[in-house]
Amino acid sequence: MVTHVPAEAHGDERGALLSFVEAQRGAIRRSVLGLTEEQAASRPSASELSLSGLVKHVAEMELNWLRLAQQRPNERQRSEETWGDSFRLVGEETVPGVLAFWDSVAKETEEFIRSVPSMDDTFPLPPAPWFPKDARVSMRWLMMHLVEEIARHAGHADIIRESLDGKGAFDLVALEQSGDWGA
Prior knowledge:
mainly alpha, 6 helices, 2 strands
């Protein structure tokens, strides 16, 4: 991680977890900084991943976990047939539009986490071959999973961006702040 995650107020577990999730979101957001739509959609490595596709995927992934925790239907639920579309922009989708969507999901995630009575509250995992039968996870688990999942894709984004134009994470932080590394 190339940015400092500020310390939470003593005992503010929710604030700490939200800060770490936001730090990972920032890494992915910076990966598309200064790129054209075409550059963001390109696939410069052996992988089929693109930066714009990663942005869309993590936004939809976060929404999916939020809806599971809220125990509400996911308005962007993917099927096996549409799963691939979660990794690429389709139709009129643009990087700024997907980033704006993700900002709204992030805001809703924060409001939800700050409103739950306890981080020990649980919700059921959906039936899937990779989840234990009838498993439940806590809100704390949810936040740690978001850190894990977004950080994993931030690493993918780092490699893709460096393959595109040689800019690494430190370069992108400096570009975002319109300054030099030491500024």
